[in-house]
Amino acid sequence: MSFSMPRDPGRAPRIALPRRGRVLVPTLVILVVLGVGFALFSTFYTELLWYRSVDASGVFTRRIGVHVGLFVVFGGLLGGAVAGNTYLAHRLRPTYIPGSAEQQSLDRYRMGIEPLRKVAVIALGVVLGLLAGLSASSHWKTYLLWRNGTPFGKKDPQFGKDISFFVFDLPWIRFVLSFAFTLVVLCLLASALTHYLYGGVRLQGFGDRTTDAARVHLSVLLGLFVLLKAVAYYIDRYSLAVRESKVGRADFTGLTYTDINALLPAKTILAWVALICAVLFFANVVRRTWLLPALGLGSLVIAAVLIGGLYPAVYQQFRVKPSEADREAAQITKNIQQTRAAYGLDAVKVQGYAAQRAADVQTAAASPTLASSRLIDPYVVSPTFTARQQGQTWYEFPDPLDIDRYTIDGKETEVAVAVREVDTSKLNASQRNWTNERTVYTHGYGFVAAATDNPNTEGEPSFLSSDSFGKFEPRVYFGEESPDYSIVGAPKGAQPVEADDPSGSSRSNTYQGGGGVEVGSLFHRVLYATKYRDSNLLLSNRVNSSSRILYDREPRDRVEKVAPWLTVDGDPYPAVVGGRIVWIVDGYTTSSSYPYSTRQKLGEATADAVTQTSSVVAQQDDRRVNYIRNSVKATVDAYTGQVTLYQWDTSDPVLKAWRKAFPGTVHPRADLDKNTELLAHVRYPEDLFKVQRELYTRYHVSDPRVFYSNNDFWKIPQDPTGDVKQDLPPYYLTLQMPGTSESTFSLTTPFSPIGNRENLTGFMSVDSDATDPDSYGTLRVLTIPAASAQINGPQLAQSAFKSNTAIAQQISLLQRGGASEVVYGNLLTLPAGRGFLYVEPIYVRPTAGTARFPTLQLVLVSDGINAAYGNSLAAALTELERGGGTPSSGDTSGSGTAPQTSATPSPSASTGATPTPGTGTLAATIADAEAAFQAGQRALRDGDFTAYGEAQKRLQAAIERLAQLSPKPTPTG
What we know:
Layout: H1 19-53, H2 57-91, H3 101-113, H4 117-137, H5 140-148, H6 163-197, H7 212-239, E1 244-247, E2 250-253, H8 257-283, H9 291-320, H10 324-327, H11 329-342, E3 349-352, H12 361-365, H13 368-371, H14 382-389, E4 395-396, E5 402-408, E6 411-419, E7 421-422, H15 434-440, E8 444-445, E9 447-451, E10 475-476, E11 485-488, E12 498-499, E13 508-509, E14 517-518, H16 522-532, H17 536-539, E15 548-551, H18 555-562, E16 567-568, E17 573-577, E18 580-591, E19 600-601, H19 602-606, E20 624-625, E21 627-637, E22 643-647, H20 653-661, E23 666-667, H21 669-674, H22 676-679, H23 686-699, H24 704-709, E24 714-715, E25 731-735, E26 744-753, E27 759-760, E28 762-767, E29 779-783, E30 791-792, H25 794-803, H26 805-814, E31 820-824, E32 828-832, E33 835-846, E34 855-862, E35 867-870, H27 873-881, H28 922-942, H29 945-965
Parallel strand pairs: 3-29, 22-23
Antiparallel strand pairs: 1-2, 4-7, 5-6, 6-9, 8-10, 11-15, 12-13, 14-15, 16-18, 17-18, 18-21, 19-20, 21-22, 24-26, 25-26, 26-28, 27-30, 28-29, 31-33, 32-33, 33-34, 34-35
Helix pairs in contact: 1-2, 1-16, 2-4, 2-6, 5-6, 5-20, 6-7, 7-8, 8-9, 28-29
């Protein structure tokens, strides 16, 4: 006989899992945890291996150490403080709680929480500690600058404190103060909630609403909060020096007149009121009333509203506003001086330039500025480089090209340069597989250059022989277009597999550079297979005992990783130095805490027509800075990937702080000065110049009242040659500025007035030849006096070219039938001939076919009024010197509209025979021009450039005959 126990009807039946299920679930959880942990470990360890490969493991370990230190200290402080105060509030709970409906409701919560109380308190501390630690570790740069800051040797104009206090100390003080506020507020909330839950604080009932223990505890926390507020009010006084506001219509950083006379005293008063209020809260520890602390807190709130808010607003409205320009004059002057100093604009050499409206062409043509004018546009001819120098379909050249200088036949020559890089996306379908993309097509090959002022007779770049650069290692394993990772290297005697044949010789190569990370061991292969989620790294026999993995190969990325405290220029450029191809990268130190200096968004200031269209020129992010220095010149070896940092600005306190924080990372300036071959290719960086020119549009003004009204502000003209409506990019040019004795390699930009006017108001250049330390970095500005004749800016010059009858006719012929399209090259603004000349190359490229690359066909020139063209710069200048054209009666360029000009090509501008006046009929000549044009288009489609050149000669001769047969315009006005 068997008996069964009755089942408890209130208890749900227990479902017993099978033994296998009970084991499987924990096993899966453990495996998931191990998988996630190994993935995190692989990320960390492969980063360490990368840093070791570039001899910069100290940077990695230092960063990790600071991150961990800040995480532990601040996370432990906040998590421990909150958990400790919660525990203390529980320990201080009353033993007897008077009964009430409120307490009866809370009893249920107390009973439910009690079994989990300790776990909940610990979990609360851990979660808040993790969040606080992560937040604190993200401020590692702020901490290191505070820890290693050095004096600037300059004082701010209001408080007389060294600039280093604002740049290094104040950001860290504000972070610590913010953290302390967060800590105290969280402790206060957690303690108050615990006291309420356990009866130390009651909202209902008779008698005291708080126990003595709760009153003491909360009074101390409230006293700390108000004490921190007093400190915050005091620190806020200094923060006003870096506060952004508006003065008139202008952006402004620093203390305004109202700040000095109303808000600054208010902050001081509020600091004292808060301090007294804190004392009242601390005194409440021994008193048994909340009355005085409450009165003190109420007084602080009222004072904050009246003294800190209402009084400055009333002062601004009734005291300052009626005569704001005069009141703010002294503060605007401080802002102008400090902004110029912070951006390196305090030593600009300004020269008045009473430019003629029409430049003296004969004088200009004889100047070195015109002799080296850039006709090979690096923003246009990259497809031509590819067509003529590609070699194999999997190679390409970056767009745009870069500009540098080399000594050719004993003369320093400005050249467009590029390296031939591998592009695995150009492989055909049969070649697209892991083995080819990762182990065969691993690198680029070769360095290509062409003089910018000397196209060949076909309108293409005249490429320099490789002998011009001496013997050098041509392979490019680290570049702007390199694959994200490649597997290279093989044991001695193994058959080479890496494609190495731009000449078509089917040559192969094995990497011997020593760059990258070894992946011969199974452990490293597993790590990188995990990192890239690629099992081929484990399975492929191409990964052998001598293999190395190359990754993070872009020069900017490598410099940013080795020096994470630098802001890196958006356009690295290659150079042949010491038998190697190296990438030269400019690095900036920045700050957003320079007192009285106006903040600028880096992204906005560095954006132009090139950054919007290029895949290799990076635009900066929109961080706001108000101090910038080009303090570091970096090189990246294109073969080994080695990164070398050189000190450039020896006086920059920010760089000095970072060198203390990461000792041994940056080589001293003397090491770069001794490397004369590298120094010859150092140039003034574009992004710094863009930031400076953007600020100078406003900060060329020195009169504070004019600055207040914005009446004399300038703008950067838009690029008139492209479809993208963006700022004209700065151009590297070799020119001789008026007032100087010789030409120099420079970075240049024009300026126009704000509003809809497109005249020229100024021209800026910066000496960019680093071999001349006395002049390098000298900013020069030509200002055009208002009383001078109004000079056409780039937009008006381009409009004049397009509206010119002869030029328009030639352009129409070049693109007749839609078989080809015209590409406008860089519009150069050149100060010469006691005025400004504009030079613009015109390219033509087919709209269909495989040979779709541009060739130079025309050069347009303008002296500011007249315009002319030719098939060379010399021919165009010759025609312009003869008068070029005559402005029409509708010429109103002085008021901002383009003049209507015409030009007649001269016989000297043609490579064909000079026609005899009066021969041939007009119809026959037009037919000849049409026939020559069509022949040229057929030649372009067929890729026959010899025939195309002959057709262009016949077309040019026909156009010249048309000009002689056509009636000459009669001058008017």
